[in-house]
Amino acid sequence: MALADKVNFACAPIAWTNDDMPELGKENTFEQCISEMALAGYTGTEIGNKYPKDAEVLKKYLALRGLSVASAWFSSFITTKPFEETEQAFVRHRDFLHALGAKVIVVSEQGRSIQGQKNTPLFAKKPVFSKEDWLKLTKGLEALGELAHEKNMEIVYHHHMGTGVQTTAEIDYLMENTAPDKVSLLFDTGHLVFSGEDPIDIYKKHKKRIKHIHFKDVRKEVAEEVKANSGSFLLGVRKGAFTVPGDGMIDFKPIVKEIDESGYTGWIVVEAEQDPDLANPYEYALLAKKYLDQIAY
């Protein structure tokens, strides 16, 4: 059985409207976004800021297009704010996703993050967690995992450029110091390659913990330029450091092979933060789907 028979392909709305830089794609509507996802052949979506906040309203819009909710991003501030603040926000987020039928909750620690700072060098100023930060984070994530279990859901941690969990060593440390039954991992090809990590190595090492996947490609020349010129994460996005699978430097065939052999059966979400004025979202969503159909069967 091919991988495409075992997984579901979703699309992220960030190519239509960027939540970190709302001026990118401000003219693109929520309905255009989900309609073009469905037209491109996807059966799921993650949730963006333009999506209705009422679960029943959102479900109706999605059902008309044959789309389900794969997950949605949650920003935690476990290292920098009282845990109760993150806990309260998480429970609201959890309940919203549960009402929409999602099984996993994407969590990324934004304490000390520079990913949203337009002028901060991505590599030179990347945050490094102290022992105290790590202790807060690991215990806090386990607590969020327990809250997720109350709704029969799992948290999947999103390693991310410009945060305290970006590198191989940081991902390994997080996995080694959290309980496997409470904290799972999101595997994002684009963030790993942009950071200089080996995605195959990460997948092989942590495949038992991986319960959500983002497929994102990288334009090598742009990524190298951002690093060489001390650019920020957001500058990299504007310049086009990310693109969809099949349009960049990543060979997804061996990655698909590893995922297939691991028995993974969750969502694979196509995601590429790009300026929609430069990269038509529907065109690129379709390009990615055609590419994945070719290599996943």
Q: Compute the separation of the termini in Å.
A: 8 Å
User: What number of domains?
Assistant: 1
CATH superfamily: Divalent-metal-dependent TIM barrel enzymes
Q: Which structural class matches the secondary elements?
A: alpha/beta
**SSE order, one letter for each helix or strand:** EHEHEEHEHEHEHHEEHHEHEH
- Percent helix, as a range, is 40-55%
The CATH class turns out to be Alpha Beta
The main sheet orders its strands as: 3-2-1-11-8-7-6-5-4
User: Strand share of the residues?
Assistant: 15-25%
**Largest beta-sheet details:** 9 strands, parallel
The CATH topology label is: TIM Barrel
Q: Taking Cα atoms only, what radius of gyration do you get, to the nearest Å?
A: 18 Å
From the 3D coordinates, which CATH architecture would you assign?
A: Alpha-Beta Barrel
Shape type: globular
Strand element count: 11
Whole-number mean pLDDT: 97
How many helices? 11
Q: Would you identify the regions where 5 or more consecutive residues have pLDDT less than 50?
A: none
List the defining traits of the structure above.
single chain; about 300 residues; alpha/beta; TIM Barrel; nine-stranded parallel sheet; two-stranded antiparallel sheet; 11 helices; globular; Inosose dehydratase; lyase
Break the fold down into its secondary structure elements and pairings.
Elements: E1 8-11, H1 30-39, E2 44-46, H2 55-63, E3 68-71, E4 73-76, H3 83-99, E5 104-109, H4 131-149, E6 154-158, H5 168-176, E7 184-188, H6 189-195, H7 199-206, E8 210-215, E9 217-218, H8 220-228, H9 233-239, E10 242-243, H10 252-262, E11 267-270, H11 281-295
Parallel strand pairs: 1-2, 1-11, 2-3, 4-5, 5-6, 6-7, 7-8, 8-11
Antiparallel strand pairs: 9-10
